[in-house]
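Weekly puzzle thread! Below is a chain. First person to post its structure in token form gets bragging rights.
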Amino acid sequence: RQAMAMANAAPTAAAVSPPMHPSDSWRCDGGVCRLLVDLQAWATPPSAQSSEFAFLLRLLPAEEQAAVTRFVQFADKQRALVSRLLQRACAARALGLAWGAVQIARTKGRKPFVSAATIAAARARARPSLAAMPNFNYNVSHEGRFVGLASEPICLVGLDIAAPQTARSPARVLSLAELSRTFADTCSAGEWACIHGNGSAAACEEDFRLHWGLKEAFVKARGDGLAFPLRSATFTHPPLSQNMPPLGAESTRFKAVLTASVSVDDARAPDWAFASARTDDGHWLSVARGPPSACIDANGEFHSTLTAQRFDNTDWQQHLSAPWPAFECVTVRDLIPETAREEYDRIVAEERRLHL
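Winning reply:
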């Protein structure tokens, strides 16, 4: 993301509200899931040397542990770890598998997915509920204080979290003019007109982040990421002034506050749908739903797990217009196997005692 790589900075307490109190349980009914982990709700003082971090890391396969620890900054290690915990927890619950039985693979474009072998093992168990999720897939994102996951049973799904600049890097906040120059080639002329038509600089910056998040959700659902020319995708959404939720009232669930449509090279794409939710402190959570036929997968394994490829227009529009579920705030404890929670609680309690 180049200039947006300010997301790698650790969230600061001065820039965001207090940690959220997570829900006690979460659901993945029919393969539909929306989860958020608030990194400020870490149970012990955040450190790569902490017993809590080491315990959570050991839950992952060796190759995933290595992928987490290759990062230099703890904030990046933390996000990478939580992302992998989210993926395994969601896949295990949706597919009815043991937590450790889930294998995560990646496309050539680095899009994560449940491996074909894991999907085959789940289908071999002939659970009736799996028939309703022939294309189970998910996407993850992190920025600012949150790591999130969205999953879908039929549609390709993409997720992007766009945090306020102050939550990414308070010392490097771009002005509206700087944003416009830096990202001039990412938005179409119509989008820039919409963004600059919001009045105040703060409202314009908010709308830019919303557009950016929608674009990222779109290309992440497809699987080609920033190889896709972002300017060619023009998003349209209702005025923010009519859809902005109130700030400051802390919540643990975030419902979609607006929907959006996209045109690609000036041609509307009716087989895509988008919805965005907004957290109490201004993080935009944008989700894309798209057709399986749009999947970009050079190696073919991810595509092979999408077994429902053809739909008539009426059926497809019904899938696109399914209710947009709210995002639910959870902790890492909610994501680990139940058999590991007693030891996790013991480690956290001991570490907290040492830091009193």
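Puzzle host: Confirmed. Bonus trivia for everyone else. Residues 3 and 182 are 8 Å apart (CA to CA).
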